[in-house]
Design a protein that fits this description.
With about 500 residues, the protein is mostly helical. Helices cover about 50% and strands about 5% of the residues. Bound molecules: flavin-adenine dinucleotide and iron/sulfur cluster.
Length: about 500
C-alpha cells in the first residue's frame, strides 16, 4: 500500500530521511505551497520566490528520477492553504497506509505534526533530520551536566567526530583549534569583492516571480533583481565559486563592513544550506580539501568550517534543548517598539540605513551586520525581543526559527541571559568605525558622545551599561566596563544619560 511522504520547503534534499526506503511504484511524495506558511510572518518576497522556485525544480527532479510526486501550487484552486488541509486532501486522493515526514525546523510545526497522530486517520511517522551533523539527542547528551554550553568545546568534539581538519595523530591541524587571531581584520581603504553569480531563470522561476509579485505585493523587500540559485546544481556552482575564489580571504574580512559591498568575502550559502540544496558535511569537506590542496590558508578554512560544523549545529542544539520556553525569554525586560526604520531604512544613522536597505534589496546581510548593527542597536535601545525576532525571521532568505531565534534572542539581544553568549555583544560607535567605513558618510560624528550630531550608539551604549549594571554585575567578562563607567565623573555620567534620553526622544518621534 501507498505511503505518503511529505516534504517541506526547507527539506529539498534527495537524501532527506522522509524519502528513505521509498517504493517508487507505490509511494507518493507530497510538496505543497501553502499560504499559511508564507504569511504567518510576512516573509521577504525574495525568500518566498526562492523557496517556491526551488520546490518546483526539486519536484521536477524527483519526477525525472521516477518518483510519483503530488505538487500543489499556491494558486491551485483547491489549495486549502495549510499543511494539514493538504495532507488530508492527499490522504483522500491516494489512500495511503501511513504518512512519513522529516522533523521540521520549527517548534510550531513540530506541535502541528504531533497533533496529526490524532487528527489524521492514518499513522504518522516523524523521522529525525539526518542532514544535521549532531542530532538533537546527541546535543542533549553533550549539554547534560554542563554549567555553560560554550560553542568552542562543542565544536572541538565535532571536529573529532567528523575528522575535519585533524592531523594523523588526532590533533587539530596546525596545532590549534582556532585561528581567529589571524582573522577579522578591519577593511582597508577601497576594499571591494569579486562579482557574484547570477543564475539564468527557467520558465518555472519566471512563473514563480510573477506569482509572488501578484500575491505578496505588500510583503517586505524587493523581488527584482532575482539572482538566487534554485536547484542543487546551481547551489553547487555558488559553493564552488566561493571555495575557489573567495574562501582564501574569508577569514581576513569576515567582520568587515563596507558601504555598497553587501557580500565581501562571505559565502552566501546559508539559504541553500538551510533549504537542503547543500549539505553541511560536503561543504566542510570541500573547504578542507582547498586547504589540503594549498589553495586556501588554514585561518580562513578553519574559520569558515567553525561557522558550519560549530556555530550552525550548536545553535540548532540550543533551540531544541530550550524550546518552547526559549522564545519567551526577555532577560532585560526590553519593551520598546521596533522602530519604523527597520522597515524603511529611513534614519540618519548611515550604518543602520545601509544594512536595512541591503536587507530589503537582497534578503541578506552578513553576520556582523546582523549582530553589530541592527542587533546591537536593538540591544542598546531595549527593543522588544519578540518584535526583533519576528523582523529577523521574515527579512532574511535563510531564516527559519531554529537558527534565527538563538542567534537573535541569544546572541544579538542576550535575551536568554547568557545561554548562547558569555556577555552581551553591546558596542559603541567605536567598534562600528573600526570595522567599517560607514561613519565616513554619516550625519552623526562617531567620535562624539554628546551633542546634536553625536553618534547615537555612544550614549546608548553607556546608558545600556548603566541601566543594566545590576543584572550584569556578576558577569565575569564585564568588570572592566563597569569600572570605566563607575569611574567617570558624576556630571559626565549625567550628561551621557541626558544624551541617551534625547536619543530615545528622537527615536520615538522618528527623527533619529
Ligand atoms: C541576529 C542574527 C540572526 C541570524 N539569523 C540567521 C538565520 O535566520 N539563518 C541563518 O542561517 N543564519 C542566521 N544568522 C547567522 C549568520 O548571520 C548567517 O548564517 C550568515 O550571515 C549567512 O551568510 P553566509 O552564508 O554568507 O555566511 P558566511 O559568513 O559565509 O558563513 C558560512 C556559513 O556558516 C553558517 N553560520 C555562520 N554563523 C552562523 C550562526 N551564528 N548560526 C548558524 N549558522 C551560522 C551559515 O550556514 C553560513 O552560511 C544570524 C546571525 C545573527 C547575528
Ligand atoms: S557615526 Fe554612529 S550612527 Fe553613524 S555610521 Fe558611525 S556608528 Fe553608525
Amino acid at each position: 500500500m501507498t505511503i505518503l511522504r511529505l516534504i517541506l520547503a526547507d527539506q529539498l534534499s534527495a537524501s532527506i530521511s522522509s524519502l528513505h526506503g521509498i517504493d517508487r511504484d507505490k509511494d507518493v511524495v507530497l510538496l505543497c505551497e501553502v499560504m499559511a506558511e508564507a504569511i504567518y510572518v510576512k516573509h521577504h518576497k525574495k525568500k518566498i520566490a526562492f523557496l517556491f522556485a526551488s520546490m518546483r525544480h526539486f519536484a521536477e527532479e524527483l519526477k525525472e528520477d521516477g518518483l510519483q510526486v503530488r505538487y500543489i501550487k499556491l494558486d491551485d484552486p483547491d489549495n486549502t492553504a495549510t499543511f494539514e488541509g493538504e495532507v488530508k486532501r492527499a490522504i483522500k486522493a491516494c489512500n495511503p497506509k501511513q504518512v512519513i515526514v522529516t522533523e521540521p525546523g520549527e517548534y510550531r510545526l513540530q506541535r502541528i505534526f504531533q497533533s496529526w497522530q490524532t487528527t489524521l486517520k492514518v499513522p504518522v511517522e516523524v523521522r529525525s533530520d539526518s542532514r544535521f551533523l549532531a542530532s538533537t539527542d546527541e546535543f542533549s547528551v553533550w549539554a547534560k551536566d554542563k554549567k555553560q554550553l560554550r560553542m568552542e568545546f562543542f565544536y572541538r568534539d565535532m571536529r573529532k567526530k567528523y575528522h575535519i581538519l585533524m592531523d594523523a595523530e588526532g590533533k587539530p591541524e596546525g596545532g590549534q583549534w582556532n585561528y581567529d587571531k589571524e582573522n577579522r581584520k578591519p577593511p582597508q581603504q577601497g576594499l571591494t569583492s569579486p562579482k557574484r553569480m547570477s543564475h539564468q531563470k527557467s520558465t518555472i522561476t519566471h512563473e514563480v516571480l510573477q506569482l509572488v509579485e501578484k500575491k505578496f505585493a505588500d510583503h517586505f523587500g524587493h523581488l527584482q533583481p532575482f539572482h538566487f540559485a534554485v536547484t542543487r546544481s546551481q547551489a553547487l556552482m555558488e559553493l564552488n565559486h566561493f571555495i575557489g575564489t573567495l574562501l582564501p580571504r574569508f577569514g581576513d574580512y569576515q567582520d568587515a563592513m563596507v558601504m555598497g559591498e553587501p557580500y565581501l568575502y562571505h559565502s552566501l550559502i546559508s539559504a541553500y544550506l538551510n533549504a537542503g540544496l547543500l549539505l553541511p558535511l560536503e561543504i566542510c569537506q570541500l573547504a578542507e580539501q582547498a586547504y589540503r590542496a594549498g589553495t586556501a590558508p588554514l585561518n580562513a578554512v578553519e574559520g569558515f568550517i567553525r561557522q558550519i560544523l560549530g556555530w550552525r549545529e550548536y545553535i540548532r542544539g540550543i533551540y531544541w534543548l530550550h524550546m518552547p520556553q526559549y522564545a519567551e525569554l526577555n532577560f532585560f525586560a526590553a519593551k520598546r517598539q521596533l522602530p519604523d526604520f527597520y522597515w524603511t531604512a529611513n534614519t540618519k544613522m548611515a550604518c543602520v540605513a545601509e544594512v536595512v536597505q541591503q536587507t530589503e534589496d537582497h534578503a541578506y546581510s552578513h553576520h556582523i551586520q546582523r549582530l553589530m548593527i541592527t542587533g546591537n542597536f536593538a540591544l542598546l535601545a531595549g527593543i522588544n525581543p519578540v518584535e526583533v525576532c519576528e523582523w529577523y525571521l521574515l527579512v532574511y532568505a535563510d531564516a527559519y526559527e531554529w537558527v534565527e531565534l538563538p542567534n537573535t534572542l541569544g546572541m544579538a539581544l542576550y535575551g536568554d541571559g547568557g545561554i548562547v553568549g558569555s556577555k552581551p555583544y553591546a558596542a559603541s560607535g567605536k567598534y562600528i568605525n573600526r570595522m567599517s567605513n560607514y561613519c565616513e558618510s554619516c550625519y552623526y560624528h562617531v567620535e562624539e558622545t554628546l551633542g546634536e550630531r553625536a553618534c547615537p550608539f555612544n550614549a546608548l551604549y553607556w546608558d545600556f551599561i548603566a541601566r543594566n549594571q545590576n543584572k550584569l554585575q556578576g558577569n565575569q567578562r564585564m568588570p572592566y566596563v563597569f569600572a570605566t563607567w563607575n569611574k567617570m565623573a558624576e556630571d559626565k555620567r549625567n550628561a551621557i544619560r541626558k544624551q541617551a534620553a534625547l536619543t530615545f526622544n528622537k527615536l520615538d518621534n522618528g527623527t533619529l
